[in-house]
Specification:
Layout lengths: L1 E4 L6 E4 L1 E3 L2 E6 L4 E4 L5 E2 L2 H7 L2 E2 L2 E2 L1 E3 L1
Antiparallel strand pairs: 1-2, 1-9, 3-4, 4-5, 5-6, 7-8
Length: 64
C-alpha cells in the first residue's frame, strides 16, 4: 500500500498502485516510487505521470 497526498486540498488516500501491470511501492528513505516486479527499478517521471493517482487535476505525492 502506498499513501498519497493532494497538495491542493489535503486529501490523503492509501492504496495499492500498479503501473502497466507491475506492482509499485514507495521507498521513504529515498522518496522514490519503485517497481517491485523489475527488481526495485525507480520509475521514470513519465511512468509516474501515467500511473500515480490524481486529485484537483494534479498528481498526488507519495507520503512515507
Amino acid at each position: 500500500m502506498v499513501r498519497f497526498l493532494c497538495e491542493n486540498c489535503g486529501n490523503l488516500i492509501e492504496r495499492d498502485i500498479e503501473c502497466h501491470g507491475h506492482k509499485i511501492k514507495y521507498r521513504p528513505g529515498t522518496e522514490e516510487l519503485v517497481c517491485i516486479d523489475c527488481t526495485d527499478r525507480t520509475l521514470s517521471e513519465q511512468e509516474i505521470e501515467e500511473c500515480a493517482p490524481k486529485c484537483c487535476h494534479k498528481l498526488m505525492i507519495p507520503k512515507g
